[in-house]
Amino acid sequence: MNALKLIALLIVFPLLLAATGAWELQRIDMDAMGVAHGLNRVQLLLAPGVVFFGLLSALIGAGALAWIHRAGKRAQQSQVMLISAFLEGRQLLPGWLVGHIVTVSVAVVLVLAYECLALWKQGSLSSFEVKLALLALLGEAFCVYGVWLLLKRCRGLLKMFEPTPRQMFGQLVRPDQAPQLWRQVEAWAGQMGALPPEHIVVSLSPGFHITACETWLYPEGLALQGRTLHLPLCYLALLSREEVGSIVGHELAHFVGDKAEYSQRFLPLFDGARRNLENLAANLQECSPLEARLLKPVALFGNHFLAQMHNAALALGHNRHYEADAAAASLAGNTTLASALLRMAVLGPQVKTLLETYLDLNKHNWPAVEDIAWQAITELQHRELKLSNHDLINPLPHPTHRLPATGERLKALGVPVQDVLASATRSTSTPVANAALDAWFSDALTLCRQLSVERVTAAVNQDTQYTEELETLASAVEGEFTLHEGARLRGIVIVAIALPCAALLLFLLMLNGLAPGRFSEDKVLAFWVAAGLACLGLVWGARLIKRSPLTALRITPDHLFYNNLAQPLPIRDIAKVEVVDSAGLYVFVHLEPDAPWPAARATGFGVPGVWRQKWHRVLTLRTEYLCIDGERVHSSDVLNLLVDYINASRAREQLQQQAPRVPEAATQRDFSV
User: Fold this and answer.
1) What pLDDT is recorded for position 671?
2) What pLDDT score does 133 carry?
3) Where in the cell is it found (predicted)?
């Protein structure tokens, strides 16, 4: 689907512009005299310019798409070709894209300039033609403004495939802090013929992984260049030295031989470019609607190129992780690696749950923080470890890649689950874990304590920020608002027009009844139709007059009140709100899937109420417009008012539950006009 959109944007649209230029060229009258002759000479420059820039833009777009398609095919041939194609694309495609944007923009401006001159050349213009000329000038100014916005961003677009640093939370471990760990990792790398890591980071996050991306390390604020190996502290304590070696060996295997080229040159740049495009897509939501429209093709173009490279990488690297497992097994054997993989799968859910539990407990005791990592390890020795089907089906955690399922990796190693089940589910021991950490680090106790303090501090700061946001949302509204239709004047005007018309038409019909044949049958039928419409107008006008002062919607901090609902609608049951201003004001309230459907009650004539669409779970309120205290409220203000009350209600609910998270759908972008 993205490819079809790109073909339409990059090729079809420029060709339509070129065709428009050719049509404009045929419309030029060279026999004109005076001012028209001078304008024709200008148009003789504009029309070929439209053709030229339209064809040039289509050529650039077609060339870019063809190059991407060819690069994708070429990248599937070998790892070397993949890296070469990606590096070439990073350099060539942004320039082509910027060139395409500029040429299309120039062509559009030239088209509008031509049409403005064509209207001016006609001499005396009718009022309609004057309006058309002003509209064309406004469109040209709009396009010029769009070109200016794009040119402002061209420098950034040229860097659209530049990598952005990864973020990692943890503690940098230097050789003097963990001499044995560094020596062992370098020894494993030497045995495998792999490039050793340049940095080692230890944290409480799950998963072993290594990256060559530029990494921004929190909370120290360090920028790490080169290969960075991440080690989870808890698993260093719970796995044996051989098991740790086999898992680390899997990561180091990605930097052995020709795989090092892939891991050092392709993956860091690819992941960084993907994060850059994700940031661009996120920024589109904060841009003006015009900028978002103009930049959306840029995001489509970049994602199309990365998708081609990703598909090629998948085709080449389908067995990459299995090959890394096979290489890692050379350190301690297939059985040891299988035991380590299965043990991590068994320990993973329990370690995660315990860390989260002790993290929450220590947040309430801040700043007196205990060692949450050691608390989790100590508690784990009292729990029985069991293997579940999910442990075999689910992959081990990894920040950037989806690893194969653990069961599939054991099959590839040729090790049955039963052969390593006892080793993987062996009970943990605090003295053994303590000895393992002391063997890896020179001061394991201080490191564990420091990681715990940093993790709890980050969580407390995050909770504080969320709480402040919730309190701001909760205090944004006070009291309640009553909205009414307020269309009394409109109803009076409708009645004032419909009443005389209805009286006249009924009088004419009565005359025809007293003297048949006075009017033809066609006229009588027209009188009946007009009289019916006039009566409907009377009813509609009377309805507007009656319902004008009546409450259409009452908003309180926790409920919405509608006249024809038996019970107030709790705000917590609302999933989304939309306000549409088109031939009247429509307020759509979408309910949560599990929310009870509100019951209806009967109301009198002219009382405002909602239309209940149970199949869509939507309540629709239709009014001419809405007023507060007799003053008309714009549709965007109605939406903002509803959003503020919904956010405030959910924020209060979260604060009461003491949950450190902002409620979902609590931002303006989740609601639309």
Assistant:
1) 28
2) 66
3) Cell membrane
- CA atoms of 164 and 277, how far apart (whole Å): 10
Predicted pLDDT of residue 147: 66
Helix axes 267-284, 289-316, angle to 10 degrees: 160
Q: On the CB side of 309, how many CA atoms lie within 13 Å of its CA?
A: 27
Kindly report the backbone phi and psi dihedral angles of residue 367, in degrees, each rounded to the nearest multiple of 5, phi listed first: -95, 10
| Sign of the Cα pseudo-torsion (23, 29, 34, 37, in order) | positive
Q: How far apart are CA 60 and CA 11, in angstroms?
A: 8
At position 7, the amino acid (one-letter code) is I
End-to-end distance of the chain based on CA atoms, in angstroms? 27
Both tokens of 280, joined, read 């661009």
What are the extents of the domains in the chain? 2-157, 166-265+317-468, 485-547, 549-670
Q: Was domain 549-670 assigned CATH 2.30.29? A: yes
Residue type, 563: N
| Cα dihedral across residues 618, 623, 626, 627: positive or negative | negative
Please choose, from the candidates 593, 636, 591, the residue with its C-alpha nearest in 3D space to the C-alpha of residue 610: 591
**Segments in the chain below pLDDT 50:** 33-35, 659-673
Evaluate whether 628 touches 640 at the Cβ level (below 8 Å). no
Neighbours of 546 (CB within 10 A): 15
CB atoms within 10 A of CB 209: 22
User: Strand 199-203 and strand 228-232: pairing?
Assistant: parallel
Q: Name the DSSP class of 253.
A: G
Longest CA–CA separation in the chain, Å: 117
Tokens of 623: 């009014």
What confidence tens digit (pLDDT) does each residue in 211-220 have?
Answer: 888 889 988 8
Q: Where are the alpha helices (DSSP H) in 365-487?
A: 372-380, 389-393, 406-413, 417-424, 430-440, 444-474
pLDDT at position 317, please? 61
Q: How far apart are CA 127 and CA 118, in angstroms?
A: 16
Residue type, 480: E
- Rounded to two decimals, the pTM is 0.68
Residue 25 has a CB neighbour count (10 Å cut-off) of 16
- Locate 144 and state its tokens: 């010029």
Alpha carbon distance 216, 347 (integer Å): 28
Cβ(156)–Cβ(218) under 8 Å? no
Q: How far apart (Å, rounded) are the C-alpha atoms in residues 513 and 216?
A: 92
Residue 402: closest CA among 335, 314, 343, 476? 314
Chain centre distance of CA 672: 15
- CA 167 to CA 278: how far, in whole Å? 14
Please say whether the beta carbons of 588 and 580 come within 8 A. Answer: yes
Helix (H) or strand (E) holding 140: helix 127-157
**Could you give the CA distance from residue 243 to residue 232 in angstroms, rounded to a whole number?**
13
| Burial label, 229 (beta-carbon count in 10 A; 0-12, 13-18, 19+) | buried
Q: Is 594 helix (H, G, I), strand (E, B) or coil?
A: coil
- Report the pLDDT value the prediction gives residue 669, as an integer from 0 to 100: 27
* Range 430-437 contact pairs with CB under 8 angstroms and sequence separation of 24 or more: 430/377, 430/378, 430/381, 433/237, 433/238, 433/377, 434/237, 436/236, 436/237, 436/238, 436/239, 436/240, 436/241, 437/233, 437/236, 437/237
Query: How would you classify the pairing of strands 574-581 and 585-591?
Result: antiparallel
- Please name the amino acid found at residue 447: L
